[in-house]
Amino acid sequence: MSADTQAHSRNDNPHSNIALAPRDILITIFSYIVYAPIPNPYPEQAPIANSFDTPAWQLGQVCRYWRHISQTSPVLWSRLRLDFNESRTTPGALLRRAQELLEHSGASLVTVEINISLYCSEALGEGVARLIRDVAERIRTLWFEYRFSADTPDQQPETTRFLPFLQSPVFKDCTFSRLETLVLWPFNLSGRSKCRFDIEGHLRVDAFARCPSLRHVELRDDTLQVEFVLPYESLSVIRANAGSMNGVIHQLQQATHVDLDFRVAAHIPMPGCPQIPWHPSVLRKMTYLRVRCDNIHSSDPLRRGEWITEHTTVFTSLHTSTLRTLHIAIMTIPGLRHYVSLMPDAALGGLQELVVDCSRIVQGDPPDPLAVRYVLEKLPSLRTLRIGADFGDGALRAMIKDTSLLPKLTVLKVDVMLVFKHCGLITAFVRKRGDMLQSIQVTAWLQGMYFWRNSPYSDVTDFATDIMASKARDRWLKLCSLVHVDIKCPYDGEQTDPFFITMGLSQARTDLT
Fold first, then answer.
1. Superkingdom, according to UniProt (predicted)?
2. pTM of the prediction?
3. C-alpha distances in angstroms, 70 versus 1, 19, 101, 112, 140?
């Protein structure tokens, strides 16, 4: 460190020894601070890089030496969440600010999230397109999210303005040679599924057709009328609303992890749309499949009460022996039985993990024991079962009654609500199968009571406090004495789920008892 720099540091903060630390040590410390896990791992909760509220900017306010380090260390600017909010300032100011941030990242590979209004001006849209083009060769992860503010009218002629932005001539012949992960949310309409936009015909977006390194894609398109041209044949992980996925599914050849959303809120059945099966190549590689679907056409008065059949080929053509994890999110146990019955025995026979998110029972009826038993009988090789309150109740009762079900099961993962409601059933199951069971894992799912707590680090202690104060206390203590128990708080997913960052926490059994 130069004498001048030391003098400046002492003048700015004469009582702080840390201000005099060597540059490499400070960069290491800054990196831990800048990239520390946030309590809620949703992008919309992450600090906005161009708002002066991020740690990288705040660290630079301590002294001139720290400011110099923070602004000349590309490692601190390799993940940028850029919010282009025209209601706060002019497009020119927003673009200049974003350009400054990208310059701080130097020549390093970057992760960029673009958060922009659905109704952005043409000047801002083209400016953002040019920014992305200029750093296209060093973008590793790119996330486009379009806000739909609550005070925005449901119908305006500008609703398709974002498409010319993605189809901008700026992207012509642009190659994203280092791009590995792409997330496209043309419409973020959570809770606003009734809002549909009239787009004439299908629109084609080919800005990302030239991505030779692309392996992970997430598409959320509520219009179902946008054709994204991507190198689907080389993808290894894809997550998408499946309403417009019929043609895409057949193009997947290298995908090992697939997540499809067939729920009515995201899926508008298209009359005459052909049922296209899986490509033979992907059936030799796929190990993880997650499907979210409704049981019946609850949104269509003319078809209410009928089973949804538009996507049955996804199940019936699943002739694979490589599938190891199946995650089904569905409304009812009869619906779960229906879709499992469509799957070939070869696909089910090799499953090692089943995750069932079945949170509602039709008209409050108890779980159908025959439907539950049918599902369990189809899974002779299952080693890990993750269950929630409704299906979990029926599954535990069936396995207690018949020990021949799931003979290879070694790990049981249960939702926190199941612990509070049926801890006695879990304990009885452990007594019955304790010689084979290795562990019990209590998981705070999104549907669980701990999702809205502020800090992920409070969930374990909150659960421990609540369970010890509940009527299930004695059964919980007995369960902990019979088998190893872990408490996990994964929020959006676990390590077996490739679509989310894991934020799992565990606490020793002795701490809970």
1. Eukaryota
2. 0.78
3. 15, 13, 11, 18, 22
